């Protein structure tokens, strides 16, 4: 089982949003040294919490400051863009880090409807074109001909090269699973986004309907989980308080920068909110590294998946670094030499 990272460039209260981008770059360099398999960054727009809005730019910075870890998107929200432009961007990225670039694709807007319209005035029409856009993108990324009679058949994505980005389908519903299966692509379910709801069904649908492709003769299924490890259970729960506090507001449709743990712990909560926090603490993958790793392994075994990506939020950046360091040791990852 491969162990990878998803980072969302989360804004922290009391710090400029640009620091979240710089923290992502520093974390990627550390995870490269620790031996993680992939480092993916997300795409969100007009989001007060998740400020990574241009993954292709961030991927370029990470790719040129790392040596061995695969780097990619989780994902590019394709309905916002022309497939040719995305193919060109990722062909350039592959030229910067040949054979290390991943292109994760999603259909969701990564934003609200108004923001999606601001990004693309045809936003309401593009999701219906998603399978066709994926087909075109795959051809351009791999330097293969588009369908016979396609109006853009003579158009090519540059620069060409001996390697190409690895395309993944991402999702938090059955739709992405079906598209990934149809095109014979690797598929990753956003377990952390739905708290696992719909995950087993989507993975089963993906495997059942998988059509083998030349690059991927067998299905390659993964999940992304939220997890945080520390030296002690108490320390882990302390840092998790920021995330739990944020989730209370998210349940109301309010998205804020991540508050420090002492602020979250200093709030007065009503009975319903207290019960919700206790539920979050009971179900979250939070605790000592042996406990968190064991629970991740149990989940992976139960779902029979090939790869787990871990996303971790903490107001204290040192807590995130500690969590990933402890888990790398627990999973027995082989460290890489720094560039």
From TrEMBL:
Domain Luciferase-like: 1-302
Domain of life where this protein originates: Bacteria
InterPro entries assigned to the protein according to its UniProt record, in alphabetical order: Bact_Lucif_Oxidored, CmoO-like, Luciferase-like_dom, Luciferase-like_sf
GO molecular function list: oxidoreductase activity, acting on paired donors, with incorporation or reduction of molecular oxygen
One Pfam family recorded for the sequence: Bac_luciferase
One GO cellular component term: cytosol
Entry's family note: To bacterial alkanal monooxygenase alpha and beta chains.
Protein name per its UniProtKB record: Luciferase-like monooxygenase
């Amino acid at each position: 089982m491969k162990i990878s990272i998803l980072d969302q460039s989360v804004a922290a209260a009391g710090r400029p949003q640009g620091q979240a981008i710089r923290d992502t770059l520093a974390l990627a360099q550390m995870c490269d040294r620790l031996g993680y398999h992939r480092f993916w960054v997300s795409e969100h727009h007009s989001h007060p919490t998740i400020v990574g809005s241009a993954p292709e730019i961030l991927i370029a910075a990470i790719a040129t400051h790392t040596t061995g870890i695969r780097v990619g998107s989780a994902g590019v929200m394709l309905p916002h863009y022309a497939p040719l432009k995305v193919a060109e961007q990722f062909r350039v990225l592959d030229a910067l880090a040949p054979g290390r670039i991943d292109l994760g694709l999603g259909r969701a807007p990564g934003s609200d409807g108004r923001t999606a319209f601001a990004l693309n005035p045809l936003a309401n029409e593009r999701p219906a074109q998603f399978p066709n856009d994926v087909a075109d993108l795959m051809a351009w990324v791999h330097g293969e001909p588009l369908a016979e009679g396609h109006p853009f058949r003579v158009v090519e994505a540059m620069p060409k090269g001996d390697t190409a980005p690895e395309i993944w389908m991402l999702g938090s519903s059955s739709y992405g699973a079906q598209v990934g299966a149809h095109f014979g692509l690797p598929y990753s379910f956003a377990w952390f986004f739905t708290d696992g709801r719909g995950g087993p069904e989507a993975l089963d649908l993906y495997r059942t309907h998988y059509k083998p492709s030349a690059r991927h003769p067998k299905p390659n299924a993964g999940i992304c989980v939220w997890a945080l490890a520390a030296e002690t259970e108490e320390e882990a729960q302390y840092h998790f308080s920021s995330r739990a506090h944020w989730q209370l507001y998210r349940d109301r449709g309010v998205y804020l920068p991540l508050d420090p743990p002492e602020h979250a712990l200093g709030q007065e909560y009503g009975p319903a909110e207290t019960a919700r926090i206790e539920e979050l603490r009971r179900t979250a993958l939070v605790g000592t590294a042996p406990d968190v790793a064991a629970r991740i392994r149990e989940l992976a075994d139960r779902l029979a998946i090939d790869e787990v990506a871990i996303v971790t939020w903490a107001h204290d950046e040192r807590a995130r670094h500690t969590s990933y360091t402890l888990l790398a040791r627990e999973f027995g990852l082989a460290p890489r030499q720094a560039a």
